[in-house]
Amino acid sequence: MQANSCGHEWVVELTCQEDESHLDSALIGVLGDLLSVDNFAIYINKHVTLQAPPILINTHSNLTYLEPSQAQLILNKATPSKTRVIHTTDDVTTYIPVNHSDTILGVLIIKTKQLITDRISALAMYILNVYANQLWILHKSRLDPLTGLLNRQTFDKKVMEIVTGNGFLLPREQADTKRCWYLAIVDIDLFKNVNDTFGHVVGDGVIAQVAKLIKNNFRIEDYAFRYGGEEFAIVFQSQTNTDAFNALTRLRQRVASHDFEHIQQLTISIGFLELQSADTVSSIVNQADMALYHSKKTGRNKVTSCHELTLSKEVRISQ
């Protein structure tokens, strides 16, 4: 791409992207063309509307890597539509915010020997705002309208990203133990009775309330999906199978103790497993479904680990 006075070609390049990773790559290419330097880094809050630490999507060796908490401090000091410049003896560092609806989602950090021109700075901010808007459009397209959770179409892609090694674990301060990804399938117990007794409007309200409890029970870097009907999927990080079980048990208990409008109480059943790199999405879901079915079959309002289920089967066979 060649530089152009209004950035039209760059805008087209960004707005035609329908995949987040491709959008990130396009942004890096556009900024490289615009700035004509390699020494820049981009930190973006990929959750768009939620308070989350920004993720590094590009950096070069001459720029010091920032932990998410450090990058967040820069964002907290930034002003929408205002560039910040710091001069040192050896170079100039320019901080350009990434804005969306008066919210700062990220920051572009550029190190140069000379101060970049006002025109380049203004055009970079314009390009970053176009990127942020396209990121928001992609984000909205992935959401289930009733619950605000990620939709079923996004589920397969996200699971594949993780099992093929393209998923990421966010660094966490003082986290010195390796974390793993887990998948849980959650189903509302006896939900048909809710619809039959109170109607679909109340049923939709119940689904939305359970979705909210799921979101509140997990970290912002985890993923919650409306898998279909009254079924949900959660892709989350945990250090051990026991920790994962405990997190899901807390969710089960909170749902069971929640006072739902019209129906007062209901319960959920859960099946879960650790994600492995050799698995396909269909085999992963099938294993989680088997664990979920075991929870349902043995009384509902339970959490079943696929790992423990497999171990118990092996014990029965050996006997």
Task: Describe this entry's structure for a reader.
- The chain is α+β, with helices and mostly antiparallel strands and 319 residues long.
- It folds into two domains: 8-141, 2-Layer Sandwich (Beta-Lactamase), CATH 3.30.450.40; 152-318, Alpha-Beta Plaits, CATH 3.30.70.
- It contains ten helices and ten strands.
- It has helices at residues 8-15, 20-35, 68-77, 118-141, 152-163, 191-198, 200-217, 241-257, 281-297, 306-318, and strands at residues 40-44, 55-58, 84-87, 92-100, 103-112, 180-188, 223-228, 231-238, 268-274, 303-305.
- A five-stranded antiparallel beta sheet has the order 2-1-5-4-3.
- Helix 2 packs antiparallel against helix 4, helix 6 crosses helix 7 and helix 7 (200-217) crosses helix 8 (241-257).
- It is elongated and about 70 Å long.
- The protein starts with 7 loop residues before the first helix and ends with a helix.
- The relative contact order is 0.10.
- The model is unreliable at 169-176 and 314-319 (pLDDT under 50).
